[in-house]
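Annotators were shown the component list below and the corresponding predicted structure, then asked to write short factual statements about the assembly.
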Amino acid sequence: MAQEQIRIPQATARRLPLYYRFLNNLHSQGKQRVSSAELSEAVKVDSATIRRDFSYFGALGKKGYGYNVNYLLGFFRKTLDQDELTKVALIGVGNLGTAFLNYNFLKNNNTKIEIGFDVDETKVGTSIGDVPIYHMDQLKEKLVEEGISVAILTVPAPVAQIITDQLIEADIKGLLNFTPARLNVPPSIRVHHIDLAVELQSFVYFLKHYPSNEKEDTI
Amino acid sequence: MAQEQIRIPQATARRLPLYYRFLNNLHSQGKQRVSSAELSEAVKVDSATIRRDFSYFGALGKKGYGYNVNYLLGFFRKTLDQDELTKVALIGVGNLGTAFLNYNFLKNNNTKIEIGFDVDETKVGTSIGDVPIYHMDQLKEKLVEEGISVAILTVPAPVAQIITDQLIEADIKGLLNFTPARLNVPPSIRVHHIDLAVELQSFVYFLKHYPSNEKEDTI
DNA sequence: GTGACTTTGTGATATAGTTAACAAAAAAAC
DNA sequence: GTTTTTTTGTTAACTATATCACAAAGTCAC
Ligand SMILES: NC(=O)c1ccc[n+]([C@@H]2O[C@H](COP(=O)([O-])OP(=O)(O)OC[C@H]3O[C@@H](n4cnc5c(N)ncnc54)[C@H](O)[C@@H]3O)[C@@H](O)[C@H]2O)c1
Ligand SMILES: NC(=O)c1ccc[n+]([C@@H]2O[C@H](COP(=O)([O-])OP(=O)(O)OC[C@H]3O[C@@H](n4cnc5c(N)ncnc54)[C@H](O)[C@@H]3O)[C@@H](O)[C@H]2O)c1
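Structure shown to annotators:
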């Protein structure tokens, strides 16, 4: 078969999981159909943007009717590969890491933290939220064994780059970085930064310098 | 005096805390000057973008020389109101909330979580990371008493809207929402959503559907 | 002091994302 | 079956952001 599909805009891609979650909600409420206007009210995204987003995948709706919840849900499940489990590793079982381990990302998500790593001997060998914690010495071995290529980084900033290098060595493909460090990686590896201190600080800046809410939501 | 300043682009505003942090790093390394190219390497933002960002505040650098670290740092400290402490409340002292309470956002940031709230009697009355936890019954009273107008929301999704209404009642101005709920607020109140499940899910989507790294970093 | 080099600040341009507006299609009402 | 109403899908316009490329203004070496 030809290719995946035409590449959709990144902004759209970032909204897909949001749509998917709210469609799930509607579905479990027994709703059969939904209009872009209703969905807009729920997810707080302009209805024209929603229609545009959906249109990248073809004509999913029906004029004068809206969208069939079941059909749309099924479509997005396929599009977001929700039938295939993505296994993730978490490096650094501290305050933030522990919170993530205790959270069930699987609930409408099909992503699971399968394994944790730390250097703290009091943590190695334990399980948190059913996720076993291993020592960093076993990083490569275990990642290869489990076939994991996505990692969440929640270690202290000063060791972030060193650990990143080890992860690259272990053939990781993507890195969700919660540390304040900006990482050096080869171009074949995707890194997203979620910098909570920056989020808080810029939020405070917006509050002080921008007149209230001209919506500008960080997803 | 006239007005604040010309309004700078939101994308720029979101990068300011990042610049500020790295300038602090350079400063404590004893560096006297820095070029946009060096800074670019450190923060992973195109050097032209950095120069453009800085230029919104006037001519901060010197041609053929670069930027004076001390001067720039002082300038951004003022711009980001770093000399004035912003007090923040945290609602919902669970997994995520506890992680935040244990984290020192004050380190180069001048934002501090001053107070926490929960309904869990085992948490009320304790302190976590030196932050006292109060019962939700005292929400309005305490927020007014402490003069707090920014809140972080880390409660279960089903109660998010109810608590939001209480916060509005308590005259909050901004809300950093970590729950998956999309909140209804009057336009005078600013809400930023940080939706970690969406971040993870869309990250996985990018990994599968977009050829490696055409950089597209969520700050 | 002179010439070579560096680096800014910014027009111009390119790229990305959002939104208004509406014809076309279908549904719903009658 | 006809009319009215609803709501999509998309064209066109707008707004925002990023980047190129280079003159201008300086620094630096000698
Ligand atoms: N906690 C927050 O709210 C918060 C907010 C913003 C940013 N962050 C960032 O997130 C990261 C984690 O924060 P935290 O509060 O969980 O820190 P933490 O100190 O509680 O946890 C760090 C964990 O990493 C482990 N670790 C240390 N060196 C390691 C190594 N070489 N290999 C593997 N594991 C190692 C430690 O044993 C510890 O368990 C930090 O970079 C921090 O700056 C955290
Ligand atoms: N932990 C994570 O990694 C993670 C990831 C993604 C999203 N989230 C979201 O963040 C939020 C918090 O997650 P968590 O894992 O910390 O949950 P949690 O259950 O550990 O904590 C929730 C806290 O809120 C308190 N609470 C409940 N009802 C309350 C009320 N009416 N008023 C005040 N406090 C109340 C509970 O007592 C508890 O302490 C949830 O909405 C969750 O979906 C968390």
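Statements collected:
1. The first helix of chain A runs from residue 10 to 28.
2. The two ends of chain A are 34 Å apart (CA to CA).
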